[in-house]
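User: Modeling request: complex.
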Amino acid sequence: MEENLLKEEDEYFESKRNELLAKAPGEYALIHGRGLIGIFKCEEDAIRRGYELYGNSPFLVKQILQFDEVLDFTHNFLISA
Amino acid sequence: MISFTIQIPNLLRVGPVIGIHVAAPRYWAEILTNRGKPTRIFAMIDTGASHSVLKDNLVAILGLNPIRAVRVNTPSHSGIKAFIYPALISISQGEVNKLVHLVALPLEGQNIQCLIGRDILRNGVFIYDGPQNTITLTF
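Assistant: Request completed. Predicted assembly structure:
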């Protein structure tokens, strides 16, 4: 997986995080490139819209929260990266 | 509710591993008519995993696209960058179809290509019957 995949979209989200938090906390932002395409109450609606607009081109769907979610895995199936 | 029981010889050694089909979500597959075909893979039901995982080298084969990056902590590393992929999974010959999010990570063991974690199991019932060497899933 390319390290830079969705990097532009992530940076854009980060630059707008506070603005988005004030506007629609807990909702889902759809971002493509350096543009906010829309804000959705339901994540699936955001994903569906992203596929409709961009098909095979990557787009970002991210919940508008103050801090990013961190996933914890505690078992040994995962190979050390 | 749909319920099915699978007999797994030597369940102790093999673990609760089932065959599932994975594909790009239907609405994406409609756009990409030549992609999104379901591929059969082996998945272990893992109540120790909070999120479901897909072996990272399958992402390109399945034609999945990520929707965001997340940070992942494992017993040996913290803050590993991983991507989340929406995918349609189909269990028991299409009786159960679910749109899920899979975290792409390296998985140990050639026979395990996916972990079905608690994010999927939260909608169902999982019974592990050791004496009978069977597992039962209900959704």
